[in-house]
Amino acid sequence: MKILIADDEAAIRQSLRLILSSESYEILESGELAEVHSLIIKEQPDLLLLDIHFKGATSLDLMRRMISEQIQVPTIVLSGAASAAEAALAIKLGAYDFIEKPISADRLRLTIERCLESLSLRQSLQVMTNQPSLSVEIIGQSAETKKIRRAIEQYAKKDVKVLITGETGVGKEVVAQSIWKSSERAARPFIIVNSAAIPDNLIESELFGHRKGSFTGAVSDQVGKIEMADRGTLFLDEIGDLSPSAQTKLLRFLESGEIQKVGSNQIKKVDVRLVAATSRDLEKEIEKGLFRPDLFYRLNVARISIAPLRERTEDVAPLFSYFVNGFCSKFGEAPKVIAQEAIDALLEHSWPGNIRELRNVAERVSLISDARILREHLAQVLTNLHRTKTPQTQVSESPREILPLKEFKNKTEREYIEFVLNHTGGSITQAALLLKIDRTYLHQKMVTHGISNKKGQKGG
Would you state the pLDDT for residue 340? Predict the structure, then answer.
């Protein structure tokens, strides 16, 4: 994958290149705003990391030009000191997210992964027509999918809070996008915050903003995501991962509509519609004392529960067909036909990773098969998936050899990490989220155990 870094500070470009060096991306750089447009045309990057402020210029005009010329490049905007208006306008002009400097390495990596994944899912869950992307319709004819469509239609224009629940990978962000695009706020910003991707000590700053000097690393005033979403919609993903302190402040905002930056005494009134999502069972989290019941009652005004893919098998074949032919189009190949035996194999799989896993399988099949009709290649990919579903060493079974306890623990840990990495298709960031450990710590474990990722790099 090709990423273009556009920033007028050489030190920032070098830092970003270093952060992304372990991911096997092809990195392009530009320090001149005037040449970014020509580089996009010439190199056709898959992603643009774009500083909002260049010396004597702003990149907002470049984003407007890209829209007028129908140049579609997923864009993540970077800034050390942008105003709320600039941040909101960047999102309105199509930026996926807005990351403030200094940039967290883990935050950047996860944002990039989610940006590309979100783009693919939105494309794949749209009806296969030439309608503009604002016309979003979820693919599938199962009873569960029809219920989701009805709920979106029912809640979108009523400007109520919506809580979306469902397992990881079922498409919660796509549903949130559909609510926004069908609402009266569609012309206003749609701001995404992934609670699980932001360290606990930074989540309040991320949501509410901060004043310069309010904590170590706060080198300038920063706008929070809630303020950026003023008059628009805030999508708070994985809300069950919020810290107790952040839950308290979010509850206060929902009750009053007021925000207060970290380190500031000033209070500001904002008008924001909140759509939240979680893969956790919030009722159980409340029983454990991990989630505030009063916050849950505030969020649970309108609820959309998305069933896992295994419970809406009627959607598997049409989704898979669309994914495959989407990749065929991307790779410059003719569309493929899915044979009945291939469909049968799809329906036998339980899809623990839901739509995300289905898309991953479709991509693998598209890469390895030159056949016009998909048959045996799909069976091969699914067989490999079944082999990786369970680690070789299982504590529930008797060990095949007697080992020192430390050696047995290391062996089991290595095999389980390899299993999770296989499940995520080699994504270290997603594996770290599933294991609920820091990405850097997982990277260290991979180096310790000599584990290579799918691209063949040690711990990369």
Answer: 85
